[in-house]
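Q: What changes when iron/sulfur cluster is included in the input?
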Amino acid sequence: MCAFIRKGRILMRLIDLSDAMGQIRVEFAGCNMKCPYCVHIHQPFKEWSVEDVVKFAKQSTTRNVYLGGAEPTLQKDLLPLIGALDGIGKKVILKSNGMKPDVLESALPFVEGFVLEIKAPLEDIQAIMVLTGMSEERSKKYVELLRRSIGIARQKWLRIWIRVIPEFINLKTVPTILSELEGVSEVMLYQFMSNPEFDLPFMGHEGPTPSWAELKKLGGIIVEKVPQVRIVGDAGKTVMKK
Ligand code: SF4
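A: The predicted holo structure follows.
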């Protein structure tokens, strides 16, 4: 039995629970950041018990489970859920903003991999403040915690996803992010505003930006450092390999 399972009915707040295209997606509500372009922190939620989510997963032949949403690590009962999913043979990918490295460390033996986000060069605290809605002190702490989280997560498969908002992620800033990508399995470059379900307009951007050509140039720099770069935007998807 999973070490994290405890007695009693445990409730978690979910934005959505779905099973499609080879992946069960558990999207949690709530986040400890206030990113001004975030759709998910404004979405309604329902309460589900760990048992009901595990039952949902168990009834499906889909093996891959993605735990995302807003921020999964805020759920007190995330670890019992991960342990139970692992116990029924599911392959769990855990997404996080990286603010709770201790939770990632506890989850490490039971997950297949992680997804963490880098929002801007981690030295640029002013940019981090704008992008997360957090104070200077909290932004500095976040950078420290995110670096710890990356160090833990790269022991497994690790995707770093980068939401390309051109004022912060561009040809000038990307080279300063490369040192954070040591040991990362892949980077996903996501064109800002290319999926209205993911983003709210921000800094005057109301449609997909930057251009696909610009994304490919950024990918060309990053792929020198990591095995592959996945680019996602209004022109579709492409993968660049080293
Ligand atoms: S973008 Fe991510 S880190 Fe920011 S508020 Fe939304 S879920 Fe949280």
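Observations recorded in class: The chain has seven helices and ten strands.
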